[in-house]
Design brief:
about 130 residues; three-stranded antiparallel beta sheet; globular
Length: about 130
């Protein structure tokens, strides 16, 4: 195994035994990418995220938020108010990932119609 200056192991996601693949597994989920993109616009409450991200269930939203929080990409802020107020925001690490995810999302929006068979004719009105 190679090491970086300072003694940390050099990770190689192409290796089957690379520990970083667990991070890729979470980030490869569509909901994770959409949540990161939405939080790139600023902190949001759970209900705001559900409205912003069409089609996500409450259960899937909460599960994905917890996974992203465990990776240190987002933080949960509980304001200890009645009624309860909780917001989610990107951490410094999450903010460094946000422009990459946003660029990927915009690329998909710009290129998807050319990539999907018959999609151009059936979704011409979506733009």
């Amino acid at each position: 195994m190679d090491f970086l200056p300072g003694g940390s192991p050099r990770l190689d996601v192409m290796r089957a035994d690379c520990r970083a693949r667990s991070v890729l597994t979470v980030l490869a989920e569509r909901w994770a990418l959409l949540i990161i993109d939405a939080l790139g616009e600023g902190p949001r409450r759970t209900s705001e995220l559900r409205r912003r991200i069409g089609g996500i269930s409450e259960k899937m939203l909460i599960q994905t938020l917890r996974r992203l929080e465990a990776l240190g990409l987002i933080e949960r802020r509980d304001y200890r108010e009645v009624p309860p107020k909780v917001e989610y925001a990107l951490t410094k690490r999450g903010a460094s990932l946000s422009p990459i995810v946003s660029t990927l999302d915009r690329w998909v929006e710009e290129n998807a119609l050319d990539m999907l068979p018959g999609a151009a004719a059936s979704t011409a009105g979506e733009m």
